[in-house]
Amino acid sequence: MSATVLRISRGAIVCCAAIAIIITVLLTMHVCQADPLAPGDYARSLVIHGVTRTYLLHVPPPVEGRDRLPMVLLLHGMGVSGSVVARATGMAEQADKEGYYLVCPDAAGEKKRWNTGAGTPEDLAFLTQLLDKLVIELPVDKQRCYASGYSSGAVMCYRLALDSPHRLAAIAPVCGTLERATSLQAQMMRQRLPVPVMLIYGELDKEFPCRGKTMPTSPRYSADETIDFWVKYNHCTAMSDNLVLENGSVILAQYIGKRPEEHVVFVTVKQNEHEWPGSTIIQQQTRPTLHSFVMSTMWDFLRQQSR
User: What pTM was computed for the model?
Assistant: First the structure.
């Protein structure tokens, strides 16, 4: 009698476990198969350790023959917001044309500057959890998630890539260099996963040094030092000849390794200061031809990378 009861109990436990697994799978499928969002902008929020963080989600029109689309995380510079940088850079329009989700989070620190270190606001936790949330909620191609950023957003872009390389297939920071502290943290990592990088930089940028070496006490590297770091980090072994493009206004240098992900590109924009090439935060596309060229160059680089 007791043996029979024991067998029934074990069978019941197995049955309940199976039912729980089925329910979990069905719930996951429900989340993933929710009605798709209509094209357009969505102001959304996410609570991180009791703090409400905000972001802009731009949904492109459906792309025929593609069930899942790439996603680009765009980080704004100090003092502005995700919606401002989406408009100023023209990336929302590009997302509609090329077919990718554009996500523009808002920094919550002093002067809306991204926090690349410890303490609050917990920007790294915010961005990683945001990425994880969206790849579940949206029909995103998990192998093709990218990040870009301007100025302070570019600095945060490096930090995110080094902390979570498995989440990003490539990054394309603009007008921002690597922090020395971030570099030192990366050097102590036991496992390094290469991250394809395209750094876009203005030759006349006075906010972040471009050429040469910085003092050891400087919190940030120069653009040259940033490229040197990524060339070593990605195990690049060869450099192609510089390409002079767009009537001499753009210089492109490529560094490659033995694998596709071991790739670094340095785009220098002549006569460009600390501004998104061809546009400003206030007025979009001050130089439309240059802007269009740089944007297409960036996307051509990103879309070829997959994790």
Answer: 0.85
